[in-house]
Amino acid sequence: MEYSFRQAQSEDIPQIWEILERAIQRRKEEGSNQWQDGYPNVSVIRTDIEKGHGYVLTDGGIIAGYCAILINDEPAYANLQGQWLTAGDFVVYHRVALAEEYLGKGLAQKMLLYIEDFARQHNIYSVKADTNFDNGGMLNIFKKLGYAYCGEVFFRGAPRKAFEKVIAH
């Protein structure tokens, strides 16, 4: 399969939202409280795209996955209960989700590798992310890709595990 990674456009919103709705439902079925409080929602996605932060992994004309990528823009990370590996510029990503039919094919890892490429293109060599304590899929991917556990951050009153990966130049 030939995948590509590009900035999301406003016309992608219906496909992106469908992917996120299913991901929200899957988290609920897994017994997680992650994404069960009305976040993320369509207006969050719209804002991601308007600000140029939304990215999609595509398989031809089909959107296989979505994430938001930001540079030095996660206020909660300043209050980490723990220790980051680096103190300089960083890329952070949120709202990683794959379409149902693309699950189990290693595409979340592929998307995170595209995010590392994005960081390098911006001369940034730190990638930071966080996830729920019970999100086994993401925790496993962080481990596989060499992320270091750095501590806890808090979003909307709930603790999350925070990770960082220092990438090669």
TrEMBL record:
Pfam families reported for this sequence: Acetyltransf_1 (PF00583)
Coiled-coil ranges from the UniProt annotation: none
Boundaries of every N-acetyltransferase domain copy: 3-169
Name the UniProt record assigns to this protein: GNAT family N-acetyltransferase
The organism of origin for this protein: Sphingobacterium chuzhouense
Lineage: Bacteria, Pseudomonadati, Bacteroidota, Sphingobacteriia, Sphingobacteriales
